[in-house]
Amino acid sequence: MAEYIIETAKGKWEIVVGLEIHCQIISKSKIFSGASTEFGDDPNINVSFVDAGMPGMLPTLNKECVHQAVKTGLGLNAKINKYSEFSRKNYFYADMPTDYQITQFRYPIVGEGEITIDLSDGSTKKIGIERMHIEQDAGKSIHDLSPTKSYIDLNRAGVGLMEIVTKPDFRAPEEAGAFLRKLRSILRYLGTCDGNMDEGSMRCDVNVSVRPYGSDELRSRSEMKNVNSVKFVMQAIENEAKRHIEIYESGGTIEQETRQFDPTTGQSKLMRKKEFAHDYRYFPEPDLPPLILSDEYIDSIRAEMIELPDAKKQRFVETLGLTPYDATVLCENKEHAAFFEKAAAGHDAKKVANWMMSDFFAMLNKKRLDIAQSPVSAENLGNLVELISKEVISGKIAKDVFEIMSETGKSPEKIVEEKGLKQVTDTGAIETIINEVIASNPDNVSAYKNGKTNLAGWFVGQVIKQSQGKANPAIVNKLVREKLDK
Amino acid sequence: MATDTQTVKRTAFLSRLKIEDDKIEATKEEFNKILNWIEELNEINTDDVEPLIAVNNTPLRIREDEVTAGNCREDILKNAPSAEYDYFAVPKVVE
Amino acid sequence: MTDITKLTVSEALNALKNKEFTASELTEAYLHNMENERQYNAYITECADIALTQAAEADKHYANGTNRALEGIPLGIKDLFCTKNIRTTAASHILDNFVPPYESTVTQNLLDDGAVFLGKLNLDEFAMGGSNETSYFGPVVNPWSKDKPLVPGGSSGGSAAAVAAHLCAAATGTDTGGSIREPAAFCGITGIKPTYGRCSRYGIVAFASSLDQAGPIAQDVRDCAILLKSMAGFDEKDSTSYKTEVPDFESFMDKDIAGLTIGLPKEYRPDGMNPEICAYWDKAAEYLKARGAKVKEISLPHTKYALATYYVLAPAEASSNLARYDGIRYGFRAEGQHLDDLYTNTRTQGFGAEVKRRIMIGTYVLSSGYYDAYFLKAQKMRRLIYNDFMDAFKQCDVILTPTSPITAFPIGDESMLQNPINMYLNDVFTVSVNLAGLPALSLPIGLSATGLPYGMQLIGKPFDEGTLFSVAAKIETDAKFERI
């Protein structure tokens, strides 16, 4: 893809970006307690004595969270560490009832991996994963109920998180966006995180630095916390890079700092001053012995792995003949890909893909429906394409048929039958119409004969119109020319 | 490794403990006395020694993913010095 | 009739089974003692009403023959165990109004066996101390005190004093660096810290999680065996709890010790050690030899470093475990304009001096720039100390040492108060055991010239408490120590 270079009057700059993404693990109970992970309940309902950090309470690790983490690690093509350790990260925070977070520090459950991102020009790029560890989420403070007080709800406290740390491999905002979309797609395929950034179940911290174009130095970075949409992540990178460049070019320096991105202005502001810098004093969690995973356990999860978007995309391109772009779009969402495969079975896959990506998605969007609620079934969409391929109906009629399908849910065959939309391929019937059109337009006929041969198209149009769209255009075209040239 | 008053102040801050100004010096002295004593550990070379983290060598057990706790808000809040509208209440946190 | 509060737990159980008196009568007798002996300051919270209700329940079980292992035995509970609906303070101002909505596993096990709870026993604040003088509720007085009040040892000082003065039949304790064994020794009674993982830590206010273990403090060895059987057991709520059978410890009491090898670590006999305690140590070894055990000098080469190792690791864990006492969810709160002020005011006013000292040290040794030099170093030293014991146990079955280099000292002793290290040095014979996670029992061996008890410590292999009971029973029989 084209390089992302920021050019100013004084020089050329490039950006170096890394992401840290917190993903809430899908599980019934919390990572270290038996309270529900249900979201949206009344305050402090899904809270156990462990979650509230009561004296003498001890954490116990949830099997499902480990399973989900290993599955995710495999999905990130990453090394699964058979030995990992939990650590305490110590800091005072109203939403963290023990005033330490149980996380993983020196020995995370997942090591290095990589994922491939798809860029808008059809190219791909590999982004390195540094590590992934599991930890507990914090509660939430509510600041708008009182002018003088904050209120603490611990329902979210203790929900399992996977923190994925990338290598600083991003060189353009678009790459970060593509990464988040791909990551979300993988997590949803695996069912390990729902990936909803707007609901906070996937949260992104962005580390940005810049350097003169072509150099390989690493300059101080600033970290922006909880940037909560793909669009904002890209915007934050762009604006933060500009801010760094302006400071460097006016002779200033950047200090490592934590900043808060403001979605309304697109700018960031300083969040944590240096004198308040934390010292997290990580040390091994004495309440939880090291976590040891066996090869058999990891292999059993490997055996459960389903086809992920990249593999599916490749298969769609190689065996179904889709373009890489179409395959990428269809594979981003597991349900879309499954629908497509079902619709394409036994039919022209490329045509099915075109239909899905145009009329079908447009219809779902317009009706604000999820693919699972689609009135047009996968089989019916496939059959509609089949009718076109077999020249039973024209592409134009097919659009009308699709419209009826999406209103009624009926099969295309039935609609064609009921409405008598079958394409006319009987040359006798078509010739009758052509004769009528020629007879009633003598001026155009003579114009044609005098050299305005492009009027043939007009005649074809008239014939199809008179046939109410049912006449096969190829046949009409051939016959019209034969008659006019006679 | 003798410590200084700045470090003592920072340690107090990290611990969320207040040391009155006139006690800083004495605290530092006491700190250094204890740290000095601890430093006798340096007599032993431990370069090739694995740190001992868990004494009884049990690998971590994992529990089934079942909802077995929660739904006890009254018990959660009843010891709170200040609770309002079913929340714990604290002075306004300015982000 | 003899004073029924002087009976051991096993004697009382027999008497209750034989209907010599009722559980209610026994409980009332202890409540009576508690009321008359408040000068010991052994209890922080007395719960007579609850005790009497439990005792009445126990009497029903005796009446219908469904009596359980500890039916109707009145116990004192160290105020570090959370007890449902009974105030639990950890002897700290910061928790002085805390009423847990849950029961610790160990106390639940005791309740399930029919025990009666008389109240919550005094201790050093958050179990940090060796003399019970750091309690927010004031010091406990050792029942052996003569002209001036002596400390009972710590941190389970209330437990040891209450058992020695017959203010309960037996008590629970916890031991992080000697907190069961030292007070048991100072008060002339018996206590055992089991193997790390033997008793669940669920519901016990944490001091140093990798070292804390619960155990009983009782009149004699047999009572400890009975109590430990009830208290111990695997608990899925504690990830460090060990999944193994709990044997019938009492059955080890009569087991022959002939052929066992008893190790005497040479490092526990430093130059200048009190000859009185050395003489008792030799005597204890003689008793065992006379019963056919072999006695052998062994070496635990890193003993010298155990205290410093302990005083890095325990405060480090404590600094994190005690962070939660911040004035938000429970306990004492001092107001503050901003949240950080509230935290700082609450903790500064809520914690006592020793606790604050250890939080500070613990914070320091974990902070960046010092972690490797102190914390990691201490974790490595812990490995060496652990290995010392594992090597020693290739040559012997049990290790015999004194419990403490000294006897009980006066409350308010100047040298102890002026330099905290002097107080820490009293733990010299006990902390290694916690670092290695081993079981160790202390029992009285005899009196000093000044008439104060000395304790002997037996250290066993992991999960081999049984052998400790076998050996301790023999020393107990031969030493003929007279309790108060």
Please tell me about this protein's structure.
The complex is a heterotrimer of chains A (486), B (95) and C (484). Chain A has 486 residues and is an alpha+beta fold. Chain A has three domains: 6-301, no CATH class; 307-419, no CATH class; 427-484, Arc Repressor Mutant, subunit A (Orthogonal Bundle). Helices cover 39% and strands 19% of the residues of chain A. In chain A, a hairpin with a 4-residue loop joins strand 1 (6-7) and strand 2. In chain A, helix 12 (427-440) crosses helix 15 (473-484). Chain A starts with 5 loop residues before the first strand and ends with a helix. Helices cover 35% and strands 9% of the residues of chain B. Chain B has a domain at 5-43. With 484 residues, chain C is of the alpha/beta class. Chain C contains 16 helices and eleven strands. Chain C has an eleven-stranded mixed beta sheet, sandwiched between helices. The two termini of chain C are 18 Å apart. The mean pLDDT of chain C is 97. Chains in contact: A-B, A-C, B-C.
Largest sheet entry of chain A: 9 strands, mixed
**H/E series of chain B:** HHEHEE
Residue runs with pLDDT of under 50 for 5 or more positions of chain A: none
Give the C-alpha Rg of chain A: 30 Å
- Unreliable spans of chain B are none
Helical residues, percent of chain B: 25-40%
Mean pLDDT of chain A: 93
State which percent range the strand residues of chain A make up.
15-25%
The strand order across the widest sheet of chain B is 2-3
Strand fraction band of chain B?
A: 5-15%
Helix count, DSSP H or I runs of 4 or more residues of chain A: 15
Number of helices of chain B: 3
